[in-house]
Amino acid sequence: MRPLLRFWPDLRSRIGVYIAVLALTLLANGIQLVIPLITGHIIDGPIAHRDLPGLWLPVFGVLLIGIAEAVALWGRRLLVAPVVAQWEITWRSRLFDRLQYTSVAIHDSWESGQLLSRAINDLSQLRRFFAFGIPFLVVTPLVIIIGTIILTVLQPVFGLIMLIMAVPTIATVTVFEKRYREASRRSQDTVGEITTEVEESIQGIRILKSFGRSPWAAQRFSLMSRKFQGLEVRKAKLDSWFWSVLILLPTLAQAAIVGVGTWGVVQGWTSIGTVVAAVTISMVMRMPIEMLGFLLADALMALTAAARYWEVIDIRHDITDADGRIEDAPDVGRYRGELDFEDVDFHFADTDRDTLKNLNLHIDPGQTLAIVGATGSGKTTLASLVPRLQDVTGGSVRVDGTDIRKLPVNEVRNLVSVSFEDPILFSTSVAENVSMGAPGVDDDAIWRALEITAAKDFVERLPEGLDTQVGEQGLSLSGGQRQRLALARAVIGAPRILVLDDPLSAVDVDTEDRVQRALREILPDSTTLIIAHRPSTSALADAVAVLDEGRIVALGTHDELLGSSPLYRELMGAAATAGHSSSEHSASEHFSARHTSEGGAL
Prior knowledge:
Belongs to the ABC transporter superfamily. Siderophore-Fe(3+) uptake transporter (SIUT) (TC 3.A.1.21) family. It is found in: Cell inner membrane. One of its GO terms (cellular component) is plasma membrane. By secondary structure, this protein is of the alpha/beta class. It is built from 22 helices and ten strands. The protein folds into two domains: 2-313, ABC transporter transmembrane region fold (Up-down Bundle), CATH 1.20.1560.10; 339-577, Rossmann fold, CATH 3.40.50. The chain has helices spanning 2-5, 8-12, 15-30, 34-47, 56-100, 104-109, 112-154, 156-203, 205-210, 214-267, 272-313, 379-385, 409-415, 430-435, 443-452, 456-460, 479-491, 509-522, 535-540, 558-564, 566-572, 574-601, and strands spanning 339-346, 356-363, 368-373, 394-399, 402-403, 416-419, 497-501, 527-531, 543-548, 551-556. A hairpin with a 2-residue loop joins strand 4 (394-399) and strand 5 (402-403). Helix 3 runs antiparallel to helix 5, helix 4 (34-47) runs antiparallel to helix 5 and helix 18 (509-522) crosses helix 22 (574-601). The radius of gyration is 36 Å and the shape is elongated. The N and C termini lie far apart (75 Å).
């Protein structure tokens, strides 16, 4: 029960209310045991003595008990709903917060569907369990014990019959618990797999349709659904056996009480009223005993849900502030933006192979450095180290001479702004997506950022301009439009350090040239690290570093490296580059002249 007990700190703050809920649940269920005693009294008293006036008080007592039961049930629901709803919000917020400060590598190791099922299905299961399961799981055994004591007081042999019934019940529970827990865990994990499959199919619907693979996706989903069906059927079979035993044993006990009680009445050592009271109590106890099957199944599913929840919460915060905390008050104005990689090594957690090895690199404040390398050389990994999406496994990344691991995480991430090749937009407006890079900015600042990234024209043509909803992941826009909005988000806050991972791969060369020149003019003080794949990008950078198998093997300007680095010429396509660079240079001069002319006219 340890995964459930770990919620105690959250429960403790409202334990008074929860105890009241338990008390009301016990009252609503336990008070029913009094009615059989009143019934027995009526049979042996007013009925046996034909005392009609003597019926009024017992009947009034039954009425009061019914009212008390109804009030207790009403009060229990009224009290428990807001408490458990608040706990669910707390747990979900805790899980979400944990995921926000977990490294990208750990995120990549989890299926998104598994995280979604934990955040939604499992926490909903826990809310229901704390609202209904625990109160009844605590109260039901008490009701059974109280009922057994009442039977023993009425007639010891009746209590003995119930105790004898308890032995096979406990044995059944022991066998059921282990098997059901295993089936429940597998079933809930499969829900996560199904969630992942649905999410991937929705996100990849264009690929599935383009390649005619919808039947393949449907078959995969069908296989997972059948797997889930098999696990649910296994749970149902275990349930059926358990419920059958729990229904059979009270029935046998009830039959024994009727038989022994009848014999006792004939022999004269008990009364009819006592036997009727005992039989009625055994009937009242049947429901709690039968409920044990449902409650135990619910408890095991909640136990599995709790274990799955804590698996996420227990993920170590591997990217934190130096003292283990995460500060929320960034102060970035004092930084110049000098960036150094000193003897940097990096490897992913699931391998010992270094992606970056003994890498050294210096970028002056305001300098633009392009990183060029073949696929798999470590360019994106290098870029992810600056905003601490990953942490180095050796060496250090320094800003103004200070290891970024010694700086507050949020301070680093306000100092550094990023834009990736695969742009991620959120299901909200253009304005909200762009202003995410500098919360609180006005529309004028947003338009300036859009103008820098050559996005202003197409945004003005959108149905509602800045208020246009871009849809899930911005898929209502083209790839180049999404990239330019993501780049606007990166530059709107005039970051001290700008990390660009091929952010304009989906736009034409002329647009890329315009954007990069605008960035140099508008953000002259921003230190820029850009992952480059085009000669035009490298040509505009102050310096170019060539990355090969995790090491910097060449460093210089675009023209210098064309002459001195065979690898760089190969990456840039040297033969084509010369002519391409010349044409691009001419185009750039033409653009600059036209821009100057238009500026003069204005």
